[in-house]
Amino acid sequence: MEKSRSELGQIVVGVARDPLGLMGLIIVGVIVFCAIFAYWIVPYDPIAMDIKSRLQGPSAAHLLGTDQLGRDTFSRVIAGGQVALKVALPAVFGAMAIGLTLGMIAGYGPKWLDNLLMLFFDTIRSFPTVMFALAVVALIGPSLQTVVFVVMATSIPTYGRVARTQTLTLRNSEFILAERSMGASMARILGVHMLPNIIGVLAVLAAMDIPTVIALEAGLSFLGLGVKPPTPSWGALLKDGYSLIRQTPWLVVGGGLPIILATLGFTFLGESLRDVVDPKLRKQR
Amino acid sequence: MLNFATRRFGLSLLILFVAVTAMFLMIRAVPGDPVQIMLGPRATPELQAQLTAALGLDQPIWKQLLIFYGNLLQGDLGTDVFSGRSVTEIVFQQLPFTLELIFASILWSATLGIALGAYAAAHPNTLIDRIAAAVSVSFVAAPAFVVALLALLIFAVHLQWFPAIGAGEGFWDRLDHLVLPAFAIGLSWVGYIARLVRASMLEVMGESHVRTARAFGIAERRVVMVYALRIAILPVVTVIGVGMGFLLSSAVFAEIVFARPGLGKLVIDSITTRNYPIVMGTVLVSTALFVVSTALADLINALLDPRARTAH
User: Fold this and answer.
1) What residue ranges define each of the domains in chain B, with the CATH number in brackets?
2) Which neighbouring-strand residues pair with B144?
3) Where is the ABC transmembrane type-1 domain (chain A) (predicted)?
4) Size of interface A-B (CB pairs under 8 A)
5) What is the pLDDT of residues B40-78, one digit of tens each?
6) Phi, psi angles (nearest 5°) of residue B107
7) Would the pLDDT of A245 be above 80?
8) Which of B40, B70, B227, B235 has a 20 to 30 Å separation from A205 between CA atoms?
9) Does A127 touch chain B (CB under 8 A)?
10) What contacts A199, CB < 8 A, 6 or more positions away?
11) A258, burial (CB in 10 Å: exposed 0-12, middle 13-18, buried 19+)
12) Quick check: A150 contacting B, CB < 8 Å?
């Protein structure tokens, strides 16, 4: 435990030394902070309507103005961050867990199972992401759960393939052969000995995957196929802003900037994490 | 090489087959009778039975699948529920608009990306290289549909430099309508390609044929432009082929934002009206496009670099 803590400490220090990494750390920190304490930060109820003060520009009362129903845009932006993370985190962790398991099985198991799983990964990857998302939404209807499912399904192959490659390189290393010769079970070899060697790389992938997920959620909500109104989502803000683009620019700005900031933050953080955790990965992309 | 090509295309066909079958079964497994959805709640039982038979939904599922593949091999993707027109015809009518947009986006972003990357690699670790690197990462991060919306807001609505809606008619007008959507889609690719070219360029610059060219006293400019760059842009080909899926996805959003005709607009409109045959046809065609372009990229890569033929 002591050792792993210091390792984690080293990683954080490494990231903070890199200017882009530090910037990413700060941006992500602010977004996570706002999402957790959204309830106390928002000046207004993000779904409370106030028709009398609709479509206002920025003012002291409404920092980013109001939308067509008089809802406070700033409050909706903050609450939207919560929705974005509510979709992104479970989806990314779910995809990582499933991809990791399948990938390790593919890399360690018999050849036919490997081929079958690879075909499965390749098939999912063969759908253009948005087209796949649209097909699923058309079939089972839009909701927060649908978005999480779509995002999870589309990113499983990425984690699976990386976990498989890592397992393949590890399976003939001496410490694994030694374990096997002592009669360790497959579950023990994979769970206790391989997992710690693979998880770091996947964590980096996950950090770099979060922006894609946030953008996809926002994109689906923008098309009206993601979270349902009146739930505040950055994509929903953009949707309202798009239809009112000639009346007020503030909805597009309020919905667009957080998405760009969030993607920037997580990308900086992910890149910097990658360089610190595993410089070799840099060439693989 | 021929062996590799056969195997690669065999794999693509297998993947397409699995993907299309999975989609077909998924559509059939969805709760709710598609006929009832199409006709609405007030349709008479006779009308429902008639449409069920017309769509072949009264057959067992394996037979439906066989019929579906039989039609597919003849280029028949089914019939539009509302207009009764052939889905193939509708999809292929919209496809050129999407391809035109994707092509324009690749063209400008690859040109600029390669130039930036080559410049950065020729002057590594200078201030310009550092700035280019930071800008590249930032561009990569910007989702196409957000860029599209902001571009629409700034350049079409406020400055009114470019049209906001449609695809235009006649060559110059069409080009005018392409600028903003192609800008939005291509922006993240500029940074990505620049970084890619820079990395592969730095690698190539250290190789012996470049060293030999230098030793012959060939001007540095010519060494970079002719001997190094020609090899360094190879990865770009692969990346664009593999990135076809992302390009298609971005094109969907750009088409919605700029109200352009194309596959994206077609599929969204069909989803809102629950026109399943068109949704299925569009997803199928775009998936096929993606699978083929990935395979082509692999082939080109294998043609240029023999080492790639043995890798999975």
Assistant:
1) 32-76 (no CATH), 88-311 (1.10.3720.10)
2) none
3) 81-270
4) 126
5) 667 777 877 777 777 777 777 788 888 888 888 887 777
6) -55, -55
7) no
8) B235
9) yes
10) A100
11) buried
12) no
Length of chain B (residues): 312
Q: Do B146 and A223 touch (CB under 8 A)?
A: no
A263 chain-B contacts, CB cut-off 8 A: 141-143
CA distance B14 to A92: 28
Distance from CA of A65 to the nearest CA of B (A): 17
Residue A238 sits at the chain B interface (C-beta within 8 Å): yes
Q: Which of A11, A180, A266, A191 is nearest to B137 (CA)?
A: A266
pTM across the whole model: 0.81
Helix B171-205 × helix B244-257 angle, to 10°: 150
Q: How far is B169 from chain A (nearest CA, A)?
A: 24
Report d(CA A215, CA A128) in Å as an integer: 15
Mark yes or no for CB contact A245/B153 under 8 Å. Answer: yes
Q: What 8-state DSSP symbol labels residue A228?
A: P
* A222 shares contact with chain B (CB less than 8 Å): yes
What distance in Å separates the CA atoms of residue B92 and residue B86, rounded to the nearest whole number?
10
Residue of B140, B146, B274 lying closest to A256 (CB–CB): B146
Residue A263 CA to residue A253 CA, distance in Å, equals 15
> How far is it, in rounded angstroms, from Cα A213 to Cα A230?
21
pLDDT digits (tens, 9 = 90+) for B157-196: 777 777 767 767 777 777 777 778 888 888 888 888 888 8
Query: Are A128 and B140 in contact (CB < 8 Å)?
Result: no
Range of the domain at A135: 64-267
Domain CATH code at residue A188? 1.10.3720.10
Domains: count for chain A? 1
> Rounded CA gap, A134 and A127, in Å?
11
Angstroms from B46 CA to nearest CA on chain A: 26
